[in-house]
Amino acid sequence: MVAEEYAEVEEAKQLVAELCANLYTQGHVSGTGGGISIKVPTPGGDRIVMAPSGVQKERMRAEDMFVLDTAGAVVHTPEARPAPYKPPKLSECAPLFMSAFELRGAGAVLHGHSMNAFLATLLHPEAPELRVTHCEMIKGIAGQGFYSVHCIPIIENTARECELTDRLREAIAAYPQANAVLVRRHGVYVWGKNWIEAKTQFECYEYLFEAAVRMHQMGLDAGRPPAPPAVAANGHATADAGERAAKKARLAGGVTLPAGSRLPTAVVLDIEGTIASISYVTDVLFPYARERLRSHLQATYDSADTQEDLALLRQQAESDAASGLTVPGIPGSEAGQEAVVAAAVANCEAQMAGDRKTTALKSLQGHIWAGGFARGELRGELFADVPDALAQWRAAGMKTYIYSSGSRGAQRDLLGRTTVGDLRPYLAGFFDTTSGPKVEATSYRNIALSLGADSPADLLFATDNPAEARAAAEAGWQVVLADRPGNAPLPQGHGFPVATSAQHFLAAFR
């Protein structure tokens, strides 16, 4: 072992010893149980420093550590300590630690046996996972937010630790958003990209396990978001006029409101330029779909969804041709898969170049995005004020809906997998262009009927598009224009209230 590599490994050995003592002090490990391993990049190749088995964690020393290569072969065995210490033994957790290094690119893995982790696996004795949401420390888990419904897989225990390897690997593959695996009646494995992230997440998971256990004792389910308040027949949470006025003042973000202010029965939100930046749509979502048009159509050609998308594209192309538009046509299936896919790609690229928002194009884009969200390649990015506004509006008894040119499925995917978690519990429904074009008043009349509003004047629509605002206003809705960073300047004399944040949308309602 060269001197430079030796120094790096020795430093990691000391760190593992300190972390073991820390976990013992916090109650995560006892009776020689648990363990830690850290990957050490060195000029001679990566090494894995691993705590041994059978040594009291609070008395662990740097000299007690094993060193492995990335294939799991031991390259250094510690010297035996005098009696009553046992001879050094590699931890039975070694193959499980190596699985996290291999499958997740982890830089460190921790294993503990806390009582909270043990009990968390028994809240629902047959459940394959623990679900947690709306708990503060969920934000400490990489890729999660307060509104996330975070799922931690639970695997069944075995007599020996090393026999868990296959089950752990399956759980890691099945739950790409989790950075931990619980073992029923046993404990938990947690990893991170380095020892700092692994330790942070280990402590955050411990908080979540304890929260789940204590909430269960109170009759609450940590996996369910808070329930909305009881709603009266008029669609508002039960309250007198004074309470509603005071509530609206709070919900309007401190804006001074006139006497007699009331709340809308429902708020309907546009997405692009209203609750999400235009750049997220144009620079992230659209390029993602464009780059995967061909591969998606080829891979899913025989699926019902793709065949339906192709049928919609054919119908749209025929309608465009009848209207005098020059667009690439799409042959029937008798032309063969290669010809159909090539024509469909050309058609979609032409539509996207023209910034068209046809139902056919949006349906196909939605299916492409769905795969990206499911694989964790995409996450919905909203303006920071939106999640809290949605939660506050629901708490006030209002229902919130989305009306976007993107398909309803795409809307659900985007709102269900945001950077702060799943916001769908705060939404009552989704509308897309199957309700009609967003620049036509008839579309808003259709939606008002679907919502069952006594009057369209009880509904508030928020959008960044003046043409959409005029259509909604023509249908009798109240409207607010969103002036967000990255939006085009609003035209002079548009005649609508303007808000720069979701918190201020309600101030436009009279």
From TrEMBL:
E.C. numbers: 4.2.1.109
Residues making up the signal peptide according to the UniProt record: none
Gene Ontology CC annotations of this record: cytoplasm
Cofactor(s) needed: Zn(2+)
Associated pathway: Amino-acid biosynthesis; L-methionine biosynthesis via salvage pathway; L-methionine from S-methyl-5-thio-alpha-D-ribose 1-phosphate: step 2/6
Swiss-Prot/TrEMBL catalytic activity: 5-(methylsulfanyl)-D-ribulose 1-phosphate = 5-methylsulfanyl-2,3-dioxopentyl phosphate + H2O
SUPFAM superfamilies: AraD/HMP-PK domain-like, HAD-like
Residues that, per the record, bind Zn(2+): 111, 113, 186
Main location as per UniProt: cytoplasm
One GO biological process term: L-methionine salvage from methylthioadenosine
UniProt-annotated binding residues for substrate: 93
Superkingdom classification of source: Eukaryota
Residues covered by the Class II aldolase/adducin N-terminal domain: 14-213
Alphabetic keyword roster: Amino-acid biosynthesis, Cytoplasm, Hydrolase, Lyase, Metal-binding, Methionine biosynthesis, Multifunctional enzyme, Zinc
InterPro entries listed in its UniProt record: Aldolase_II/adducin_N, Aldolase_II/adducin_N_sf, Enolase-ppase_E1, HAD-like_sf, HAD_sf, MethylthioRu-1-P_deHdtase_MtnB, Salvage_MtnB_euk
Pfam families on file: Aldolase_II (PF00596), Hydrolase (PF00702)
GO molecular function, one term: acireductone synthase activity
Function as written in the Swiss-Prot or TrEMBL entry: Catalyzes the dehydration of methylthioribulose-1-phosphate (MTRu-1-P) into 2,3-diketo-5-methylthiopentyl-1-phosphate (DK-MTP-1-P).
UniProt cross-references to PANTHER family, sorted A to Z: ENOLASE-PHOSPHATASE E1
Family to which the UniProt record says this protein belongs: Belongs to the aldolase class II family. MtnB subfamily.
Protein name: Probable methylthioribulose-1-phosphate dehydratase
